[in-house]
Amino acid sequence: MSVPIVRSTAELRAVTARWRRSGAKVALVPTMGALHEGHLSLVRAALQKADRVVVTLFVNPKQFNSATDLDAYPRTENQDAAKLAPLGVHLLYLPDAEEVYPPGFATSISVSGISEGLCGSFRPGHFDGVATVVAKLFLQTGADLACFGEKDFQQLQLVRRMVRDLDIPITILACPTIREADGLALSSRNLRLSPAQRAIAPKLAALLLGVADRLARGAPVLPTLAEARAAILAAGYREVEYLELRREADLQPLTSLDQPARLLVAAWLGDIRLIDNIGMSPIGATN
Ligand code: PAF
Prior knowledge:
Shape: globular
Subunit structure: Homodimer.
Bound molecules: pantoate
Subcellular location: Cytoplasm
Number of domains: 2
Order of helices and strands: EHEHEHHEHHHEHEHHHEEE
GO molecular function: ATP binding; pantoate-beta-alanine ligase activity
Catalytic activity: (R)-pantoate + beta-alanine + ATP = (R)-pantothenate + AMP + diphosphate + H(+)
Pathway: Cofactor biosynthesis; (R)-pantothenate biosynthesis; (R)-pantothenate from (R)-pantoate and beta-alanine: step 1/1
CATH superfamily of the largest domain: HUPs
């Protein structure tokens, strides 16, 4: 059984409006394709919570800051559709760039604060591109619910902030990061790792866990992070963009683990940029 595909906003709106009129609860899973188990876990969560699930596959040019990165992004439409069919997804939306950004398109959504720092410092304009396309998809589908992975934690918090600020009537469901058996967080970029890089890649997650353990035992935050940056380089990564402890709710920097926090990292392995993060409870909290 194949999943129905629409490629225009008008068709997408027509189908989702019909569903909503019939009282169905609609969930949206926005993706850029190159689907892996992480995406499929979002789809499964959506199917559990809603009567109808739309998956979008759109490599959004506005969130890439380099043409090379945009060109190198894997496009695997047929394989993606084949992975989604057995799950029981109800609709695939595959617009082209002209459909999403017709000539004259002039609007951009910018979520200040949360989009600054971390990935925002290294990918100028990236989060404006994400916020703009996600807001469009929310409006086009009128979905009741949308699923986002914790792997892109800054993106998740940015979308939550935007939904609150703009009173968009949608529930955001956060889904945990899915990992390979050796701890490497699943990412479409993993497909580009050479065998040698693939052997080094999981050291990032292992080091992150090690830092979390040390901080939870009361190690001082800044020196511990500095040592861990050096350890990531020693493990074979070329560059560490950031390794930071941030407050979970609004991603403000923390210098002590005294509130719910997130430890976030971005590092380059050769020419591949990998990110990861884990949640941390404040010291002394019991859970
Ligand atoms: O996480 C992604 O794949 C993208 O940023 C998203 C949310 C689909 C927007 O293009």
